Amino acid sequence: MTTSASLELPPFLIERAVRAALEEDLGQAGDITTDPIIPAEAHGAAEIVARQSGVVAGLDLAEASFKALDADAMFERLVADGAKVEAKTPVVRIEARTRALLSAERVALNFLGRLSGIASLTARYVAAVEGTKARIGCTRKTTPGLRAFEKYAVRAGGGVNHRFGLYDAVLVKDNHIAAAGGLAEALTRLRARAGHMVKIEVEVDNLAQLEQALDFPIDAVLLDNMDVPTLIKAVALVDGRVLTEASGGVTLETVGKIAESGIDLISVGALTHSAPCLDLGLDWR
Question: Is 19 in contact with 69 (CB distance < 8 Å)?
Fold first, then answer.
């Protein structure tokens, strides 16, 4: 897994996401179940416990959820983001005002379960390509508004991040080429505008398109929906001149064979669009 020292999120992103989630849950009336039952001065203690094995991610968001309702809450991390845990493992101990514990519980667990699920699935893909040079990467198929956190979770699971948006790297796809009137025209326009720090990747569907793309000064090729024998030929054709990325329909059953082709990167949309949440619960102490 990725070390906790390499896992950081900007605090303002955390604060904004947690505030929005709590506003969604508490609305204009607050917690109309907890507030009448629990005195304002009451304090309690609880643990967040993993109900199944997996990789933890999202502790910063969980902590911010409780502290948004009780700034003095004690949030003791028993593991770090990126750690693999077994079922029944306590992940966090919390002491806070009881109202804060009960009202922030679902928001904290939603963030933690979602991101831990992504980290856990990523770790399974990473394990499946162990022994090859291939790295597992994510895509832009993320939940709107949560991309920074979901890509963070991929890193927690041992994967790497593809571009974060349309603004930080160029990926020329088939529709760009068609709309521009050809690859040469598309790349000529790009080179006239793209900054010197911007990487350019071109998507290709077959070996003929790959040969054409390699005639231009590009940085990477995305080999889209190619079978393994074709990937092997494509990697040989590239011969280390640019980074090679395989994508399209990658599963846990197929990713190992894809990696054995010699590919540099395998991007998997399922990491973020289809990862099941890791089951965690808040247990009263």
Answer: no
